[in-house]
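Posting this for the archive.
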Amino acid sequence: VALQTGTGLPRIFVEESTWHDWWMDFLKKIKQSQQEATVRRATRRKQSQFMCDLLTGELVTPQPTHDKIRGLADIGGLPTGDVLAGFDKEAFTSFGLEQSANAAMSAENVKVYVTAFNHLIAKRSRRLASPKHGTGAKVAYWYSGSVPEELDPAQDILGELAEAPARKTKSKQGVSAQETYQAESRAAKALDAIRTGERPDLENLRYYAITLSANKGRVIVRDWMEGNFRELVENVNAWFDDLSIVGQFGKGIIKSFKLVKLLEATAREPSDVQAPVAAALWRCALKRMPIPYEVMAQTLKRVHVDIVTTDKDKKSLNSNLNHNRFALLKAFTIRCERVPSMTAELNEHETHPAYLCGRIMALLGSIQREALGEVGAGVVQRYYAAASATPALVLGRLIRTAQIAHLPKIQKERLRYWFENQLAELWSKMKEAPPRTLTLEEQTLFAMGYYHQLATRLKKDTSDSPEDQPESLESEVSRG
């Protein structure tokens, strides 16, 4: 560095010695500051040599770092493992503590909880969500004592393995006979064993359940639940009772539902299911809580897509429908105080306008199908979305079209007579004109009315003979 002097000659500072004393004094201050910081750290370390263990409450020497938990790579964790307690950034620390002194545990207790997590994840956990973007979710549960597998109610909810394909041949409703048996026997059998005194040891057991996620090397505990075993059994029985729904073709009541399938019912693809939704629905099942509004809205959106999508195979009006979605909507109505509770099958005594409008919509679709056969995008595909939101603007016009253009073309006289009576009966049950608009909750009732009416209509396939109609039609015609 050079500076021009008055003589015109430059000054070369690096060749002068006038600044050396200042520079040495400056370096001394820096070194002194570093030494003081080292002393402070050593003092803090000495003071924190004994701390209260978070697990036992005893005074221990905290372990500097905690071991990694493995088995969460499929839900957003790292293949090398993830830490539950880690303080590698200043923002994660407090009171001047360093590393895992912020969560003081002895080396033995660190080993205990990490080993416990690894065992639960490997042996007692089920993956419920693994989205393409974001973190997934796993749930694990255990009991304070021994519970035989045939009395384990949580197995009813999760199934044998949430991601494993069904081992039994599925029925038309998509549920194997073995799954239905398990759903009816495990929770119900456990409750009977407690009530009758056959298994008094189960009465005082407790259950524990944890929901885990992982993100960029860190374990996330999303939820924690615990309670009495009898309470769990009662809640699981109520869960399946609330979900039970008539099969999409009207054949039997479906009572068995895997949680992973219910979660998939809320999304377009299984990989779209998000961890918060999985955690919320798991809590609803174990704690008998209302179905979250967001879950209902997502499910209702998928129901709309199913209904308005044209069935390419044209096997049935109900071919595109997913009974898991309607089971969730039914459970929502049962656990929501703002709307009437829905039954598993068609309720002839329900007079809520939204439910009746949904039934009318299904009946109009059946009338068009009987009159014109397959027409591609029919009245349901074209008008369901509008009718479920603003029935007053749509249904009147669709009924007039059915009366003028569709009913006269039905050649089976008794079938035409039944359709006319059903249409008149449903319309007469509404004490006033159809609502101008429906809320999301009321749109749920509309969807349930549509599904129930269509499932009843398809309870028995119509044969080629004009005289052989579905059982529901025969009974109506007989009364007429």
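Confidence is low (pLDDT under 50) at residues 161-183, 460-480. The chain has 15 helices and ten strands.
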